[in-house]
Design a protein that fits this description.
The complex is a heterotrimer.
Chain A lengths: L1 H32 L7 H16 L2 H26 L5 H39 L2 H7 L4 H40 L3 H11 L2 H27 L7 H34 L1
Chain B lengths: L1 E3 L2 H14 L4 E4 L11 H12 L4 H14 L15 H12 L5 E6 L1 H4 L7 H9 L4 E9 L15
Parallel strand pairs in B: 1-4, 2-3, 3-4
Helix pairs in contact in B: 2-3, 2-4
Chain C lengths: L1 H29 L6 E8 L10 E4 L2 E11 L5 E8 L11 E6 L6 E5 L13 E8 H31 L4 H17 L4 H7 L1 H26 L3 H4 L4 H30 L3 H31 L12
Parallel strand pairs in C: 1-7, 2-6, 5-7
Antiparallel strand pairs in C: 1-4, 2-3, 3-4, 5-6
Classes of the chains: A mainly alpha, B alpha/beta, C alpha/beta.
């Protein structure tokens, strides 16, 4: 009994310590992000490569997913609204659900599956191969050279790809609404504009940036936890990815609370 | 050349020198491998990009010139895993001499190139780039003393 | 390789940013953010139902919004509204600004302009905001009806009092009935007695029928009105309850009078009492009738109840 309670207490303390360490690490990186001295051509090169791997390489697949999901989601939503006699809410659902919730979520999911796992494995491999030691010996700051460009790439990629996803979904929605529901372009645009609010888009932007930050920072942190053994690499990736998904859920919930508070008080 | 009777002693001495000369240390060691997701050219250019704040092109131009000195232009775009042991050693030396007023420290060279019988190759490589570093120290075990029988240079 | 990658990344960033900016720009343009706006000031006694950002409608179209709400030194609510210049033509010096507060749903801020040839409203002038409050209007209309209901209740109370009073009319009738039994045992003609007050009995029955009809009318009328006014605890159910009680009472009185009349129609004194009583019943029935008419006049006719969605 006592052992079980001790175990719970130990797990709780470990979780709190881990959460606190993650936040401290996040603040260290945030502080470095705004330090101009942290940037040089080497960092820029890594940043460009990371954006290339995270955003440009994934683009064909991403656009196909956006068109596909857009058509399916708009088709299902439209059919349900017609069935319930609430087609008047079509614009609101597109803006409130597809653009501000669905687009960032799918984007984050795709990037997390592809790039977060890659970053986690990359850092873990570097740790096992002692490449991090090389950087240390040659006085190359790992935060500046390795972490910062990857995190910046994560933020930029999630923000840009979420917006791109929204635009593609809305354009495919325009085509599918005309085909499925006989909706004219004018009606579609009017319905969208009536529901579009700049405050929602700003919240979406902040949410995307926050998600971009954490879905790269967490894998980096777990990658650094790898030991000198090769077998520690999959373990660190596993833990990193589980925590990435927990972070995505937490950010989603926090963003929903923030949006409801904004609507309540402003 | 510094030869030690035990690994522990060697490691301690190496740590001391790394701590004392960290600002001009150019380490050639298996404990400081080449970055595996960068090309040979980028590995060498990285030091000048980061500390010299040179652009990618400027730093890579310098790296290309130095690779030419060792007749290694053809491996410029290759990455660490595909390099031969001697090529890897040369690239590590070139990276080490990119450090400003470098003090090159070669840690157990026969561990990097186990097939090497003597120090002639090492001496040739260092002679080719002797204008690029100030000092060079080789750390190895006492039992490898015979391999160094041909003599070694002690800094430029 | 590096240049190629840089070029691809640069193109991706530039194109995506351009797409986003174009989308945002289009949205901003369509929402009229770049359009110049006219600002007008309105005054109101209360800020109830008003909020910043509330749209201003003209003929069902949104033409502006409330930009600012502040309290003046005199305690009046000053409402600053912004209207894009393209819609400024709908706002004239004689335009009426109305805040409609419907019985169901959220308030609606509208402007109506009857004469579009009137001069444009000057941004410096302060127009007055009129408030149309459906709930208050309904309460105002219903108040006299409630007063009448109170009067009727008094009347019924008086009638009941009269029935219970040992010196009241009912007891007089019962006394007369006793006397009548005495007469019956004497030599008076039954036929004569029956003929004496049969008309009065018929009149009472007619009055009772009339009261039932009226109750039915009220019931029908209730179906036409909204749940809120006519719900379980509403005003009209109260009226119905009272009317039903009244009808029940009248019915009882009718039955009693019917029995009494049968046996006392030839009694002059009894006949006089019955007439007096019947006139009271008639007067009550008339009151109910007046009330029904009043209800019919004051309650607006509505078709089938329907919930309107925004």
């Amino acid at each position: 009994m006592t052992t079980a309670i001790e175990q719970i207490g130990r797990s709780g303390m470990h979780a709190v310590r881990s959460f606190w360490d993650t936040l401290t690490f996040a603040f260290r990186i945030l502080a470095r992000m705004f330090d101009v001295r942290a940037y040089n051509s080497a960092v820029r090169m890594v940043l460009i490569n990371q954006i290339y791997f995270t955003s440009v390489q994934i683009l064909p697949l991403f656009l196909a997913v956006a068109v596909g999901f857009g058509a399916i989601v708009i088709g299902i939503i439209g059919q349900y609204l017609i069935h319930l006699g609430l087609f008047g809410y079509f614009g609101q659902l597109l803006m409130g659900f597809v653009v501000t919730e669905f687009a960032p979520f799918i984007t984050v999911l795709l990037i997390a599956l592809r790039s977060s796992s890659a970053v986690n494995a990359e850092i873990a491999v570097m740790k096992v191969n002692k490449e991090l030691n090389t950087l240390h010996v040659f006085r190359i700051d790992v935060i500046n050279y390795l972490f910062l460009p990857r995190i910046l790439s994560g933020i930029l990629s999630i923000v840009l790809l979420s917006w791109l996803f929204s635009i593609v979904v809305l354009v495919s929605g325009l085509i599918f609404s005309a085909l499925l529901f006989d909706m004219s372009m004018n009606d579609y645009v009017t319905a969208l504009l009536a529901s579009a609010k700049f405050s929602d888009l700003i919240v979406m932007l902040i949410k995307c940036a926050t998600m971009g930050f954490f879905i790269v920072m967490i894998p980096i942190r777990y990658g650094l936890r790898a030991t000198d053994e090769l077998t520690s690499i999959p373990v660190s990736v596993l833990h990193g990815m589980v925590n990435v998904f927990i972070a995505i859920m937490i950010i989603e919930v926090v963003s929903l609370i923030v949006v409801s508070l904004i609507e309540k008080f402003i | 050349m510094r030869l030690y009777s035990s690994e522990e002693l060697l490691d301690r001495e190496l740590c001391d020198i790394m701590a004392q000369e960290k600002h001009r240390l150019g380490l050639v060691s298996l404990d400081a491998p080449l970055i595996s997701n960068l090309s040979v050219l980028s590995n060498i250019a990285l030091i000048k990009q980061y500390h010299g704040r040179l652009s990618v092109r400027e730093a890579e131009d310098i790296a290309k010139v130095r690779l030419k000195k060792l007749h290694l232009e053809d491996i410029a775009m290759k990455r660490n895993p595909v390099l031969l042991e001697v090529q890897r050693f040369c690239v590590m030396v070139l990276r080490a001499v990119m450090v400003e007023d470098a003090m090159v420290v070669i840690d157990r060279p026969f561990k990097i190139m186990p097939d090497l019988d003597d120090t002639r190759f090492i001496r040739d490589v260092l002679t080719s780039v002797d204008d690029l570093f100030q000092e060079c120290h080789i750390f190895d075990y006492l039992w490898n003393e015979e391999r160094y029988a041909g003599g070694m240079i002690h800094g430029a | 390789m590096a240049l190629k990658t840089e070029w691809k990344v640069g193109l991706f960033i530039v194109l995506t940013v351009l797409f986003i900016l174009a989308g945002l720009g289009y949205m901003a343009y369509k929402k009229g953010i770049f359009q110049p706006e006219n600002t007008y000031t309105l005054s109101s006694r209360t800020g109830d139902g008003l909020s910043v950002g509330m749209p201003l409608y003209f003929s069902g179209f949104k033409i502006g919004k409330i930009a600012e709400l502040e309290l003046s030194d005199k305690g009046m609510v000053m409402i600053k509204i912004t209207v894009p210049t393209q819609h400024a033509k709908w706002i004239r010096s004689d335009s009426k600004f109305v805040l409609e507060k419907p019985l169901i749903g959220s308030p609606k801020f509208t402007v109506t302009t009857l004469n579009l040839s009137s001069p444009l409203l000057s941004p410096n002038s302060i127009a007055t905001l009129k408030e149309v409050n459906d709930i208050n209007d309904v309460i105002q209309m219903v108040q006299p009806i409630l007063d009448q209901v109170a009067m009727i209740t008094d009347n019924i109370e008086r009638l009941t009092g009269s029935l219970a009073d040992p010196k009241g009319d009912m007891n007089k009738i019962l006394k007369h009935s006793e006397e009548l039994t005495g007469y019956l045992s004497s030599k008076k003609s039954v036929l004569e007695m029956a003929l004496g007050d049969e008309k009065s009995v018929q009149n009472i029955h007619a009055s009772l029928q009339n009261a039932r009809n009226i109750t039915d009318q009220v019931g029908k009328l209730l179906k036409k009105t909204d749940e809120e006014l006519y719900g379980k605890d509403g005003i009209i159910p109260l009226v119905i309850k009272i009317l039903r009680e009244l009808v029940t009472n009248l019915d009882k009185i009718g039955k009693t009078l019917d029995n009494v009349t049968k046996i006392s129609s030839n009694t002059a004194e009894a006949t006089q009492d019955l007439k007096l009583f019947r006139s009271e019943v008639d007067s009550t029935v008339n009151s109910i009738n007046r009330l029904i008419n009043e209800l019919d006049k004051k309650i607006p006719f509505k078709s089938e109840p329907k919930i309107k969605l925004p």
